[in-house]
Prior knowledge:
The chain is an all-alpha fold. The protein is 93% helix and 0% strand. It is built from 4 helices and no strands.
Amino acid sequence: MGLFGLVFLVVALVLIGIGIAIGTAACLIAAVLVGLGVISSSFFVGVLTGRPSAGFRAFLLQCGILAGIPAGAICAWLGHHFDAALGSDLPILCFGALGGAFAGVIVALMLDFISGRLGSWAGARVQALRVTTAQPILEKRG
């Protein structure tokens, strides 16, 4: 019984440690996004247009670009070293950053499209549920 308790304690401590690490990473990511102005500018876009979806779209685009730039630069740099081409590393990193930013924009637009379709589908389902559940209530009153 004591061995079972010890194993449970070790598993619980590992899971707590993983939770703390994930929470710390999430706080670090949020701090970077606030520091770069991504969240505030997305909020401003949403308030300025009067539509939260526009702010969400701006947030997705900015995050896609911010994630795509280093990813593209690293991929191009690795491709350069695997290819063993001669020349300066700076143009490779710049072209990779541009390619990564473009890929990030495409991924962000795809996520926006998917979330828009999912939102309209969910709204239609909720509306259909409201109609079907409200009808028996109205019939009981009538």
